[in-house]
Design brief:
Blueprint (H helix, E strand, L loop, with lengths): L5 E5 L5 E5 L4 E3 L2 E4 L8 E6 L5 E7 L5 H14 L5 E7 L6 E7 L2 E7 L5 E5 L2 E5 L5 E4 L7 H8 L3
Antiparallel strand pairs: 1-2, 2-3, 4-5, 5-6, 7-8, 8-9, 10-11, 11-12
């Protein structure tokens, strides 16, 4: 495990504080994943309030446990991409259509405006953008049940 040349902590107001090896503090930094869907553990930038990168982390899992936990907590509060586990119903096989799905955050419904709102990410992964802007993820299309795959294949 490589020890980074910076530290991260939370201040009394809950804001993330970056401290460089030279002791320079930056309050209110933001972690930004380079590839949030494809490779969430790889490539993370720590960005200051001015929008400049303060540090680059090759692998989130290579960080010391306390820093890893802090960053995972911060990223979880910002990233929201429910994972679809099952499609329960689709109103029509043309767009726009209403979809009923079961996600890791519970059942929900959304409108798919266009087939273009379903993006293939490779290795069976899909990113589906609902009409209201929330992005849903399918980690492995082949891992879905037969009924879900059949509904989804009509749009691909």
């Amino acid at each position: 495990m490589n020890t980074p040349d910076f530290t991260l902590s939370r201040n009394a107001f809950g804001r993330l504080v970056f401290t460089s090896a030279q002791g320079e503090e930056h309050v209110g930094v933001v972690p930004v994943r380079a590839f949030p869907i494809e490779a969430p553990d790889e490539g993370l930038s720590i960005v200051g309030t001015e929008g400049h990168e303060l540090a680059w982390v090759d692998r989130l899992s290579a960080l010391p446990p306390a820093m890893h936990a802090l960053l995972v907590e911060e990223l979880a509060s910002r990233d929201f991409a429910p994972v679809i586990g099952r499609l329960t119903a689709v109103s029509t096989f043309s767009t726009p259509s209403n979809w009923s799905v079961e996600t890791d955050h519970g059942p929900t419904e959304f409108v798919l405006k266009s087939e273009d709102d379903i993006r293939r990410l490779g290795q069976g992964r899909l990113l589906i953008t609902a009409g209201h802007g929330v992005s849903f993820v399918v980690h492995d299309m082949q891992a879905l049940d037969k009924g879900s795959r059949k509904l989804l294949e009509r749009f691909l």
